[in-house]
C-alpha cells in the first residue's frame, strides 16, 4: 500500500494541469458547481472536497485517483511562511494590519461583544472598473458569533 499523496503535491498537480489545459479557476468552479474562492482554496489544499467534487475535478483535469483521494483529506490550514512574502498576500496582510483594529471596533460597536466567524463564512472577489485603474473588490461575509458567558 502506498501513502496518500500530500495535499501540497496534489495542489501542484492541479495547478500544472489547469495551466496546461488552459482552464481558469472560474471554469473549474463552474464545472463542479462550487463558489470560486472556496473551490480555488480547496484545490490549493485549504478545504476538503467531497468525493463527487474531487472526482469531477480530476476528470476535468485528467488527473488520477491519487489526486482525488488527496483532495478529500482534511487539511492543515494555514500558509507556508514563504508565501507571506508574496506581494499580493503581503498587501492583503498589510490591509488587515492597518484596518483590522478599526474593523474590530466597528464590529463591536454594531454587533456587540463577539467575532466574525471564519468558519460560517463566504468570500468573493470581483473587478470594478475605475477611470484611475480597475479596482479589486474583496467581500468577506462571516456570521457574527457573540461571546456567551
TrEMBL record:
<comment type="similarity">
    <text>Belongs to the cyanase family.</text>
</comment>
<dbReference type="InterPro" id="IPR008076">
    <property type="entry name" value="Cyanase"/>
</dbReference>
<feature type="active site">
    <location>
        <position position="117"/>
    </location>
</feature>
<feature type="active site">
    <location>
        <position position="91"/>
    </location>
</feature>
<feature type="active site">
    <location>
        <position position="94"/>
    </location>
</feature>
<keyword id="KW-0456">Lyase</keyword>
<dbReference type="Pfam" id="PF21291">
    <property type="entry name" value="CYNS_N"/>
</dbReference>
<protein>
    <recommendedName>
        <fullName>Cyanate hydratase</fullName>
        <ecNumber>4.2.1.104</ecNumber>
    </recommendedName>
</protein>
<dbReference type="InterPro" id="IPR003712">
    <property type="entry name" value="Cyanate_lyase_C"/>
</dbReference>
<dbReference type="GO" id="GO:0008824">
    <property type="term" value="F:cyanate hydratase activity"/>
</dbReference>
<feature type="domain" description="Cyanate lyase C-terminal">
    <location>
        <begin position="78"/>
        <end position="149"/>
    </location>
</feature>
<dbReference type="InterPro" id="IPR010982">
    <property type="entry name" value="Lambda_DNA-bd_dom_sf"/>
</dbReference>
<dbReference type="Pfam" id="PF02560">
    <property type="entry name" value="Cyanate_lyase"/>
</dbReference>
<dbReference type="InterPro" id="IPR048564">
    <property type="entry name" value="CYNS_N"/>
</dbReference>
<comment type="function">
    <text>Catalyzes the reaction of cyanate with bicarbonate to produce ammonia and carbon dioxide.</text>
</comment>
<dbReference type="GO" id="GO:0003677">
    <property type="term" value="F:DNA binding"/>
</dbReference>
<dbReference type="InterPro" id="IPR036581">
    <property type="entry name" value="Cyanate_lyase_C_sf"/>
</dbReference>
Amino acid at each position: 500500500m502506498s501513502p496518500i499523496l500530500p495535499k501540497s503535491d496534489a495542489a501542484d498537480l492541479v495547478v500544472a494541469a489547469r495551466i496546461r489545459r488552459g482552464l481558469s479557476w472560474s471554469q473549474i468552479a463552474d464545472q463542479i458547481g462550487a463558489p470560486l474562492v472556496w473551490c480555488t482554496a480547496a484545490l490549493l489544499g485549504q478545504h476538503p472536497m467531497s468525493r463527487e467534487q474531487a472526482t469531477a475535478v480530476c476528470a476535468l483535469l485528467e488527473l488520477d485517483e491519487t489526486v482525488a483521494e488527496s483532495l478529500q483529506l482534511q487539511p492543515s490550514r494555514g500558509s507556508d511562511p514563504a508565501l507571506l512574502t508574496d506581494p499580493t498576500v503581503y498587501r492583503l496582510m498589510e490591509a488587515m494590519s492597518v484596518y483590522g483594529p478599526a474593523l474590530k471596533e466597528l464590529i463591536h460597536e454594531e454587533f456587540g461583544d463577539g467575532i466574525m466567524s471564519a468558519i460560517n463564512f463566504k468570500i468573493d472577489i470581483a473587478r470594478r472598473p475605475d477611470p484611475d485603474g480597475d479596482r479589486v473588490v474583496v467581500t468577506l461575509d462571516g456570521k457574527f458569533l457573540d461571546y456567551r458567558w
